[in-house]
Write a structure and sequence with these properties.
By secondary structure, the chain is an alpha/beta fold. 35% of the residues lie in helices and 18% in strands.
Length: 370
């Protein structure tokens, strides 16, 4: 497979979102007004009265969610945004448990394989957005039960004060070298869509030829031996790496660039030379949502050209829309070699593989650090 250079085209449409509490606790940002808003439907027809709030589940973090809460509320002053910021797998588990009484209206952010799982379980409400023609076929479900918002390549992230670019592992297998023992800190995989994908990809590399996960399990066992600890959330992992308590991890490229450029973390990354999984991050309406029109308005708002460009420039998200121009150079000039993955197999096998890791591989002495 040859190296591919990212080509991301222009962006079109903006609306912005406001803060969503999450599950049960109400947001402090109410944004009360005349309780009306404008909604552009998938066919762009007219306006509809919006409900007085919208509830969002998302792993995107408080910075993005707070920003879009503010913007969406300004555009729709009668709509209160509540959001819950938790890991992708935690969202899927929560949406499953709330199937008969949905507490959220929209799910913003997670690997497409998770949305496919939710689709098969009848948890999503199909919605074809107004910008559907700007999405390639691989960036949405056939029935538009979910659509892609950004692309996320996975990388080896390292502390650039502790390690030089020449010292850093250049490929996945280099992480297993004994010299990295107790120098790797990992985000607890079971709660993270990013980590579940990376771990599953390590199994997939040999499973695709053998239909046997054993060699992949052995690889994860070797990584576990070099892992110092598992962090309960990304922020804890970032802190550990920044302090030098660990010098390496596996994570995603956009977050690594953002932490380096916006928050001055001593981070840099290596794109594994043999290829890396590239996730499609998605968005979806939840079936049985209590505020469907506000949810559609939010869906459209966070995917407009303006919002997409903001997410690229300020939050380092690589757009899926093919109509966005003038994107940052780190997107247009970064060369990625995508790993060829059968995402349907991932969907089918991921839970089994991750359960095996949790019960048979993870060292008992390395409990998740809160």
């Amino acid at each position: 497979m040859k190296t591919v250079k990212w080509v991301v085209l222009p962006l079109v449409l903006v609306l912005v979102f406001g803060s969503l509490l999450g599950c049960m606790a109400p947001s402090d940002h109410s944004g009360q007004a005349d309780k009306r808003g404008t909604e552009t439907g998938s066919k762009g027809k007219g306006t509809k009265e919006l409900e007085e709030k919208v509830v969002v589940y998302s792993p995107h973090g408080k910075d993005i969610l707070s920003d879009f809460e503010k913007q969406f509320t300004e555009a729709h002053p009668g709509v209160k945004v509540e959001w819950l910021d938790i890991g992708s797998q935690e969202i899927l588990d929560r949406v499953r448990s709330e199937k008969d009484n949905p507490q959220a209206d929209i799910w913003w952010g997670a690997p497409s394989v998770m949305f496919d799982q939710a689709k098969e379980e009848g948890l999503l409400e199909p919605y074809k957005p107004s910008y559907a023609s700007a999405l390639a076929e691989e960036f949405h479900a056939p029935d538009f039960s979910w659509s892609g918002t950004s692309q996320t390549p996975e990388v080896i992230m390292y502390n650039s004060k502790q390690l030089s670019a020449e010292e850093v592992p250049q490929d996945w297998d280099d992480l297993l070298d004994a010299k990295w023992k107790d120098k790797i800190v990992i985000r607890y995989p079971l709660a993270s869509g990013t980590m579940r994908t990376i771990y599953s990809a390590m199994i997939w590399r040999t499973y695709k030829d053998t239909n046997d996960p054993q060699e992949g399990y052995e690889w994860l066992q070797a990584l576990d031996k070099n892992t110092r600890e598992y962090s309960a959330n990304p922020e804890m992992m970032y802190t550990k790496i920044a302090r030098g308590e660990g010098v390496l991890t596996v994570w995603n490229m956009p977050d690594t660039v953002m932490l380096k450029e916006e928050k001055n973390y001593p981070f840099d990354f290596v794109i594994p030379k043999s290829g890396t999984p590239v996730l499609t991050e998605g968005i979806a309406l939840l079936k049985g949502a209590k505020h469907p029109e506000a949810a559609k308005a939010f869906y459209e708002f966070v995917n407009t050209p303006e919002a997409t460009k903001l997410l690229a420039e300020k939050y380092y998200r690589i757009p899926t829309r093919n109509d966005v121009t003038d994107l940052p150079k780190w997107i247009t000039e970064t060369e990625i070699k995508p790993m060829a993955i059968d995402w349907a197999t991932f969907q089918d096998k991921e839970d089994e593989w991750m359960d095996y890791w949790d019960t048979k591989i993870k060292s008992g002495s390395k409990e998740v650090k809160e």
